[in-house]
Design goal:
Layout (H helix, E strand, L loop, with lengths): L18 H12 L6 E2 L4 H5 L7 H5 L1 H15 L1 H24 L1 E2 L11 H12 L9 H14 L6 H20 L5 H37 L1
Parallel strand pairs: 1-2
């Protein structure tokens, strides 16, 4: 491959993903119990087993989101921008909720020295048991699922891969006891509120741009 012939300018929109480290810093700042902490756990959550195997899909979540965003960038810039903006808005709304309504999920003791147990301990040690409602893992996984489902480039294969992987990650949040069912429902509701608002904003801006262009031509 001749790197000199690559049109680097067309990849400039990918630099917008540099916002992720800054969002991560905000997350870390809110991930502490500075107030009363609530529990949204239900009998259904208590009935779900703790399954260490699901630590694998849980831990690769952010890399999966990066891959999906890059795929959207390659297929349709509008979907890429919409996905990235949705993630940013939803994440900021989550941080706002965490700052006034902090929740936690009881964690089971991790027994064993096998790789899955070590991975599970790493997950627990890296992330404090707060910032649960709504789930960032879940809203972002549901978001890419929703984006591919409504895209013009959906196919049997990308639908199967993204819907399958997103569903696996969402389920993993429950089975590694990082989130409860209310966290998942809150995440889905958040996306369903934010995405239509962003689409509405796109249409308003599009109409305004068309009027501006028509005035300029006149």
């Amino acid at each position: 491959m001749n790197l000199g012939k690559i049109e680097w300018r067309k990849y400039a929109p990918l630099t917008l993903m540099l916002v992720f480290p800054f969002l991560g810093m905000i997350y870390a700042w809110t991930n502490r119990p500075d107030q009363e902490v609530y529990r949204l756990i239900t009998a259904a959550d208590e009935a779900l087993p703790f399954v260490k195997l699901f630590a694998v899909p849980y831990s690769i979540w952010i890399f999966y989101i990066y891959v999906c965003l890059f795929y959207f960038f390659k297929k349709d810039l509008t979907v890429y921008y919409r996905s990235l903006l949705t993630y940013i808005v939803c994440a900021l709304l989550c941080y706002l909720i965490y700052s006034v309504f902090q929740t936690t999920v009881p964690r089971p003791a991790v027994i064993g020295t096998d790789p899955l147990s070590e991975l599970m301990r790493y997950i627990y040690n890296r992330d404090q048991p707060f910032n649960c409602f709504p789930s960032i893992h879940c809203f972002s996984s549901y978001m890419v699922m929703r984006m591919i489902w409504t895209s013009s480039f959906r196919s049997k294969w990308n639908l199967t891969l993204i819907l399958g992987m997103s569903s696996l990650i969402i389920v993993s949040t429950l089975l590694v006891k990082q989130h409860v069912i209310m966290d998942v429902l809150g995440a889905i509701l958040l996306v369903e509120i934010v995405v239509p608002l962003i689409i509405m904003l796109e249409r308003v801006l599009g109409v305004a741009r068309e009027r501006e262009n028509s005035t300029f031509r006149a």
